[in-house]
Amino acid sequence: MVKKYDWYPADNEIVHPRRHTPKAPKASGVQPGTVLILLAGRFRGKRVVVLKTLKSGLLAVTGPYKVNGVPIKRVNVCYTLSTSTKVDLAGVNVASVTDETFAREATAKRTRSQRFFAENAPKTSTSDARKKLQKEVDTALVKNIKDKMVIRYLGARFSLTSNDAPHAMKF
Fold first, then answer.
1. Which of 18, 79, 111, 119 has its Cα between 20 and 30 A from that of 93?
2. In this structure, is the dihedral angle defined by the CA atoms of residues 96, 132, 32 and 78, taken in order, positive or negative?
3. In angstroms, rounded to a whole number, what is the distance separating the alpha carbons of residues 90 and 140?
4. pTM: predicted TM-score of the whole model, two decimal places
5. In what order do the strands lie in the sheet with 73-75?
6. Class of the CATH domain delimited by 34-157
């Protein structure tokens, strides 16, 4: 005997797939003051100093801007390469660096003609608070770096050639 069902699914019923919600990456081996190499994005190949791990799991890093042009920014730990070089963060005030620091400021919407012709478009600029924070962090950080070779190291860009074996390198 075949069991009779009272309900059959309709053909047009939409089945929503279960969404994967990514968790914040864990930066286990990265402490504040560690020098990292950025592997992706606009500043790839640049060496940066870790300031702190943010609540979102991202790392707050800086160049310092005066040394290599990298501003205070958030970086996912999986796009970095850790080095054995450390920088002293004594006297560097990073309490004001939070996820809210990096929130985008509201700008005026561009009209259709401004999007098509790139003239008369509203200009985007860095806020004075961000510039002040950058200056405070950079002056304290550069003051802590006593060795001139570390400043040269932070300013140099990292790259690989065809004869390099990254798996055999010690950073």
1. 79
2. positive
3. 8
4. 0.75
5. 73-75, 59-62, 47-53, 34-38, 80-86
6. mainly beta
CA distance 125 to 48: 23
Instruction: Give strand ranges (E) for the chain.
Output: 34-38, 47-53, 59-62, 73-75, 80-86
Write down the domain spans for the chain: 34-157
What Rg, from alpha-carbon coordinates, does the chain have? Answer: 23
Closest-CA residue to 139 (of 62, 42, 36): 62
Number of neighbouring beta carbons within 10 Å of residue 38: 21
Q: Locate 109 and state its tokens.
A: 């919407």
Distance from first CA to last CA of the chain, Å, rounded? 71
Q: Write the pLDDT tens digit of every residue in 121-135.
A: 666 677 888 889 989
> Do residues 59 and 74 lie in contact, with contact meaning Cβ atoms separated by under 8 Å?
yes
Residue 119: per-residue pLDDT: 65
User: For the stretch 86-116, what's the b/e string if a residue is b when 16 or more beta carbons lie within 10 angstroms of its beta carbon?
Assistant: ebebeebebeebeeeeeeeeeeeeeeeeeee
Q: What is the per-residue burial (b if ≥16 Cβ within 10 Å, else e) of 59-79?
A: bbbbbbbebbebbbbebbbee
